[in-house]
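Is pyridoxal-5'-phosphate placement plausible here? Inputs below.
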Amino acid sequence: MVFDDLPTPSLILDWDKLARNCRNMAHRATAHGVRLRPHLKTAKCIEVARMATDGHFGGLTVSTVAEARYFAERGFRDITYAVGISSGKVDELHAIQSALNASINIILDSSAAAIAVSERAAAIGARFSVFIEIDTGAGRGGVGPNDKVLLEIASAIVSRPSLRLAGVLTHAGHSYLARSQDEIRTIAAQERAGAVLAADRLRRHGFQCEQVSIGSTPTVLNSDSFDGVTEIRPGVYTLFDVDQASLGVCGTGDIACSVLATVIGHNRRAGHILIDAGALALSKDISPAKFRDDVRFGLVSYADSLEPIPGLSLSSLHQEHGLISAHGRSLPYDQMPVGARLRVLPNHVCLTVAPYDKYFVLKDGRVMATWDKARGW
Ligand code: PLP
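Reply from A.M.:
I modeled the complex. Tokens:
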């Protein structure tokens, strides 16, 4: 398929950038002596999983049962489903484990969840490895590293034959709110120290805690030390996005994923160029807005070079329409006639990618492949 003939909106993956991003993270994990269990909730794609795990042990992280099934069906055998488990998901995860000879590791942060899940697992003959989720500052799921509840949860797990305590797991999601690289480094140190402390407490009380699993893309790329950590689980680094670039975690030139769109109209009265990529094609995430005011819903870029076009912003999104406006310049109606193409670099790539069913993969300016991907829950 020829690039100029691709349908719009469509998801474009730049192979060289993807390969470089995967290689860099794999080297970083090796250099620091930690296992890399990349989070595939970002790309949700088997080819990306193969590239991201190259040279490592082949474990993955996922955030939906649909992803767990998709990757297990394609040969991945060690998968952590890293969203707090509920008993309603046990049957489907067990079906994946037994039909595909895979191990699905689960996470939880309460004795109640351990009891409910173990009862359902015992009823259907399932067994799961379990990570206790630790809150190292993100304030989402997890128990504090020093919380006495940690030991109660561990007791609940080890007293149930359908569960096996694998270790502790944390995700420093608050690294996305950091204002500087120094602040990310501080959060990375807290993430590591909190996970290691939780693991040490468990061990001191006689529990086995083999795995100490940490990771967000900003923290693993800025951490000074991985002492006591056994594995890292970054995900966004595979594709990167405008939020990561605005945080200073990558350059705009590292962003491997973009949305190809067509100009579908000029509204000179309102001062807009309209494209056929709206909220469903891009998501309405505005996370970079906390760092810069020139990006609203994504970076408007040339279709061929992927260079951002100065002075243009995607100022408003409707379901299937994107409205481009100009600041500090006039709108280039003549250079962007109806039918012209451009690309948008996504603000938060995980959300942009999710609804699509495939990527068109570009190498040396040519479409080298179409890669399918998982969708849904
Ligand atoms: N682990 C967990 C539990 C997560 O929720 C996430 C992301 O949300 C990650 C790892 C990956 O981090 P990032 O998205 O920063 O690459």
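Short version: The mean pLDDT is 97.
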